[in-house]
Amino acid sequence: MKWHPDKNPSNKKEVEVNFKRISEAYEA
């Protein structure tokens, strides 16, 4: 998974934001 925080430790904050947004989109 592209935006998973564990896969991108260098820009973790940005990834967390994107991951959260994507997760919410899938739940909707």
TrEMBL record:
Q: Where is the J domain?
A: 1-27
What superkingdom does the record give?
Eukaryota
Q: Which SUPFAM superfamilies did the record assign? A: Chaperone J-domain
**Mind telling me which InterPro entries this protein's record contains?**
DnaJ_domain (IPR001623), J_dom_sf (IPR036869)
A Pfam family the protein falls into:
DnaJ
Name of the protein in its database record: J domain-containing protein
Source species taxonomy: Eukaryota, Viridiplantae, Streptophyta, Embryophyta, Tracheophyta
